Amino acid sequence: MTSKAQPPRWTDDLLEIDSEKSKALFREHRMQEPLEQYLELFERYRQVVEELIEWTVDLTQIRLYAADILVKTDFLTVVRFLASPFISEDDLKILAETTLSPKGLTDDGSAGAQRVVDVV
Asked: What's the half-sphere exposure (Cβ side, CA atoms, 13 Å) at 33?
């Protein structure tokens, strides 16, 4: 007859210790991310923000161009970050009651794109 192995049991103290170790490892890893990566992404999205502002006349015409803007991944990312705090893609889909696919944003007279802009 074989005995079944019992799963480990952690005390609150052990969980706290492991939690602190995980936080320390996260901080160490995060602080070692290359500066070049940040600078590249910053420049990429700075340009997208400038384009968005120019295209929408300082965002005053964002509703007019919503469907054209939101089907472009970088523009969708920038629009999500216009809200404060920013809105995750998953939350935005639920709040705007649409998908973020080009079809979902442009079907039905671009109603999905309009709802995304309204939420943001």
From this structure: 10
